[in-house]
Fold these 4 entries.
Entry 1:
Amino acid sequence: MGRRDIDESDFRSRPSKRGSRPRTKQRPEHSDAVTGLVTGVDRGRYTLLVDDDVTVTAMKARELTRTRVVVGDRVDVVGDTSGEEGSLARIVRIQERTSTLRRTADDTDPYERIVVANADQLVIVTALAQPEPRTGMIDRCVVAAYDAGMSVLLCLTKADLASPDHLRELYEPLGVEVVVTQRAASSDDYPGAVALTAESVEDVRDRLTGLVSVLVGHSGVGKSTLINALVPAAKRATGVVNDVTGRGRHTSTSAVALRLPVGVADAGAEGEARADGAGADGVGTDDGAGFDGWVIDTPGVRSFGLAHVEVAHLLHAFDDLDEVAQECPRGCTHLADAPDCALDDWIEASPEDERPARTARLASFRRLLSSRTGSDA
Ligand SMILES: Nc1nc2c(ncn2[C@@H]2O[C@H](COP(=O)(O)OP(=O)(O)OP(=O)(O)O)[C@@H](O)[C@H]2O)c(=O)[nH]1
Ligand SMILES: [Zn+2]
């Protein structure tokens, strides 16, 4: 996306009560602004990456007090952007978002929160065992991602403990991509240091390269283990359950964006390819290998309330079903008990060889639909 100067008033559907200051007066004031990417948020302090290699601490300008700035946002920033110790810059504008991943606290809560901005894909990290996978949770994540206009990667961990076949069967009909990871056989069981097979880590890296990915997952699924394998510098705490709270060690509940290093195997070649300055996504790294993509960890996000999701909007993520559903009676819920739902006719009318695939796809879609209102199974 080209840089387009936009300020928060562009997002308002109603004129702001406080919007007494004409934008034309405001503009020249910030003409020296530079663009930063928000990589972390901590109690009103924002960590930004400016010019792809300067880390800057900033706070919001007063006019943005009531505006939420989240990880992944591209912002215009003024003031001291040197990144020097103790320096503090000021965020004056949020650039237009390409996607917004939202959640509500629960399904009846009308108050929605933006979790991450501008992400391309949601990576749902689910263990095949320990803890047992919960399809209700996965479904809700899929719905939240599609609603946000993001694609979904289902990352099934601990394949050394159980088979991924069943979950593949459930999610592949939806067009959800699946990738599987497992611990290396050589991995000794010393605390906090499970090694994943290099092959599984590189499989995941392949799917993340060049993209902004948000990782979500329940405590204990191996998300931190995976992130550490992908981004060794991340040093996410793993395998520790707090004796007092019974929960994971992470005290921070806010998202953090980490740059994804290019794979080990092709690091040399990539490093050279980028020496021509084409690497807008992060040359100038410590080891010179470069980065290509972002991994956003969301320690605080364990599930998605979906009160904000509309059926019609969700349906847009499924071109074929969306087209068929145009024939539905007005107000059709498209659920299994909906009278005269055209999606049922679509199966009735299917050629024999397509029937099993269509049936599986519709069943999966209906499961997603009911997850909007059902409880987290
Ligand atoms: N058998 C097996 N164990 C794994 C695998 N990946 C991670 N583990 C173990 O699973 C436990 C949880 O892993 P973490 O990476 O800490 O899980 P997490 O999802 O980050 O959990 P929180 O830190 O609570 O958010 C640890 O004991 C890991 O060693 C795997 O592929 N196979
Ligand atoms: Zn219908």
Entry 2:
Amino acid sequence: MEPLIKIKDLTLGYDREPVLHKVNLEIFEKDFVGVIGPNGGGKTTLLKAVLGLLAPMSGKIIFRKDINKQKKPIGYLPQVKHIDRNFPITVFEVVRSGAIMQSPADITNAEIRKRVEDLLVEMGISHIRNKAIGELSGGQMQRVFLCRALLSDPKVLILDEPDTFVDNHFEGELYEKLKQLNKEKAIILVSHDVGTISSYVKTIACVNGELHYHPDNIITQDQLNSYNCPIKLITHGEIPHTVLKHHHQHE
Ligand SMILES: Nc1ncnc2c1ncn2[C@@H]1O[C@H](COP(=O)(O)OP(=O)(O)OP(=O)(O)O)[C@@H](O)[C@H]1O
């Protein structure tokens, strides 16, 4: 089976300073990979490279032919804490922007609008369609950005900490939704919520300067120790945070 995405010996960084070294990872159809790691470990950097927003220092990312940037881009839900709430844009416009890459010949404007409307209804946020994003709660923001990520019906859905600033109710709903979506999409999920990750994802990638892949979702202390991937929970501000100590490389 050919992977949807093949990451080969990828080194990434900023201003010629590497932050991630020689990463190897393959993402297959219907994978559900949980990405964990400490603050500044390089999780978002890796996602940026997969999205084509950061050029590799070395190595490469190979996409399967049908992962086409124009027609089926990768769906991406960015970290909402990085979104400027003062930017004057409505819920509808944010979701609509998820189709910005779609070529007009393939799908009409009316079809895109219809899909936006359908997603807003499906996510239960149709009533706030004309609100400015600055007026939304954390849970509403996440719903909006999830609709945006799904607009192009992508083969691969990438979510960067979608459980930040959401209430317990929506968190449960979100993970159930992801479980449904995973029936036809590969999902890459960055989260600090190790407990939740272990009950939903199929495999785990630990990112801390390097990437270590664990081909199952069991992340008990014992298991992590045996993987040489010790992890403990600490509190970092409001958000429980994972810290990984040193790793040993394993393919
Ligand atoms: N635009 C940038 N320019 C320079 N350095 C950056 C830039 N973005 C990130 N970095 C640095 O790269 C390293 C990895 O950051 P990254 O945001 O990928 O980590 P992360 O694992 O996603 O962390 P967090 O859990 O806090 O989101 C950090 O040392 C960070 O300071």
Entry 3:
Amino acid sequence: MAVDLTTTLSWKSATGDASTMLDELQPNILKPHVRDHLSALFLRFTNVVEARVFLATLAKQQMKSAKQHLREVDAFKADATTGTPYVGVGLTASGYRFLGVRKAPADPSFQRGMRAPETRRTLTDPPRSTFDPGYRDELHAVVLVGDATDSAMTARRNEILALLPDSATVLTEEIGLGRINARGESIEHFGYVDGRSQPLFLGEDLDAEKNTTDGINVWNPGAPLGQVLVPDAAAPNPAAHFGSYFVFRKLEQNVRRFKQAESDLADTLGLRGTDRERAGAMIIGRFEDGTPLTTQREDGAESPVSNNFTYDSDENATKCPYQAHIRKTNPRGSGGVEELPQERQHLMARRGVPYGERADDPNADLPPSARPSGEVGLLFMAFNASLGNQFEFTQANWANNPAFPRVRTVPPAPPVVPGLDPVIGQGTRTPSDYVVDWGGKAKQTADPVPQAVTLKGGDYFFMPSLAFLRALA
Ligand code: HEM
Ligand SMILES: [Mn+2]
């Protein structure tokens, strides 16, 4: 039976093509793989035969399937048996051309690539000349190696480097390093819980969300397989062999500038005492501990933090501003432009991990001057079925678009222009409105939050099926 892409999949009872799909799919797509220690190796080949042998050997000797990953997660839950490292492989469009593969993935954004002038214009990206040196030349492939410990990750990384032929060059390597807060939840460098809200593709994960967290009756995170999987046209059997488009963006975070902006916004609004924490929450849409601002005036939500919310009871943004990062990037039905089913299709599977080390505790009460101003950030990674309708749409039509969400006003009331996403918006920033008291009426206009996230490199990849990789040599 054909893989049903229109709904979620219960992997334990999968049969036929769906079962084959899981045997031949790379891990970390349908469900996040632990990657608190990550190496991302960016490669350029010069010898077609050696490149093909290298990729096929990786698939045969170093890579596990999505199904094996899911089994390992169960074994870990049952008796703490540790799993094996994640090894993922992606190819750029120029990588496909170099390898001489016919029927390369057809997504037009993928074919153009992240470095094309048209893509740069769409995303308002900075020029490539400002990127880290390793990203200025054309890339062919990425190899991701991830695990829970540095030793396991590094050992596997070294095995893979030993397989690399001399005809291939590592143009650059990024090292991801997961961080956690006092409650053990993953955070990014500004100090906020990250990775909580995700589309869920597996029936088992949706059941767990329903039965063991705050539920799914208000916001249902379930998403159809077709939102992340695409048939691997170049594989032996595209009906059962699938892959996914992978976005990689190295986003440097100027933590000092961001923390200063939080403090300046609190001053502008006259926030005092613990209520000053609400300034940052109005930028992100959640407090540092993950508490959604639309549901609570202060932090302190349970762990795992809630995700079962929408903005339905916050139509006028008197709790969470329209421009808050999570409201811009997932309006949960309140975007005002599309119906919910269409609006939901823009969501992608985020798989990022922070990078860079620092001495200060991101959640400590310290002056901005004690914060790093560079060298730390987020290795933003996400899986998509359509780059144009997911990653690019989110960045361009939502985050960079000052008029999103579309807010209906009745004349003579002036039009509402929410402004750019204060975290990731690229483009000219204009002032935004913020409510002074949580749930109150009075709003105040504040200077734009300065841009504290800068793109330093990245590319679009396709992560093909294992069957495709094995067949390369
Ligand atoms: C350094 C850059 C970034 C930082 C610091 C950041 C931070 C965060 C935080 C703290 C959350 C809340 C945690 C959660 O709900 O899971 C979040 C959620 C999210 N972010 Fe980002 N993010 C960054 C880049 C991006 C980019 C580049 C995109 C897409 C273009 C993006 C899209 C999203 C989405 C879709 C959500 C989930 C919103 C929801 O479902 O409610 N983020 N981000
Ligand atoms: Mn704080």
Entry 4:
Amino acid sequence: MTADEQKKQVGDAAAEYVKDGMKVGLGTGSTAAWFVKALAEKVKAGMKLTLVSTSIQTTQLAESLGLVIKDINDVGVLDLCVDGADEVGPGLALIKGGGAALLREKLIWEQAKSCIVIADAAKNVPLLGKFPLPIEVEPFAWKGTVNRISDVLVDFDINMMPKVRMKGESHWITDGGNLIFDVACGAIHEPAGLAHELKSLTGVVDHGLFLDLADIALIGGEDGVTVLHP
Ligand SMILES: O=C(CO)[C@H](O)[C@H](O)COP(=O)(O)O
């Protein structure tokens, strides 16, 4: 089974957790897109849902499928959020942000009673850090912020410089107007400590470590969907 087939498999499986009347957060990326497509089928068949989105990209997809996306500020606490990830590690610690939507994703995840992460088998890893860790940075005085990020990384034995994400010749700008820096950590042995120290830096808007947020992981594979708990 290809990675894309696995992504569809888990997107469809996640849609089975959605019940009539729920308020649901829609994630971002190629895996979450399968979930959005599965939900669109349910809504076409008559299911009533209140939906919010984690990115402009997902809003555009959802609306193209006939779904209505509400403003998160008008919706209150969500019943469920379903989103992809770049890595799913022990205890369902995640790296997210490969699609540069990490800030709005984390805001939506934190406003949901329950969060399901969906991923193909290759993303299920014994240790986080092979996928570069995205860090969202306020553009003003970014050079100073990046120097302070590097100092924090060294404290965690990560001797890699953050690399600014580009889109062609220009810096990648997030939906919230910020820069993204990617850090090829290699291995993150203390994700909680690193998450705390990065978040404490002025200029760091947020980072792609999602810890203690996922309630369930649905992992695709040849033998069907594996359900993981923290
Ligand atoms: O965090 C994300 C976007 O910010 C995505 O969920 C993550 O990058 C996974 O994407 P894909 O399903 O396309 O592999």
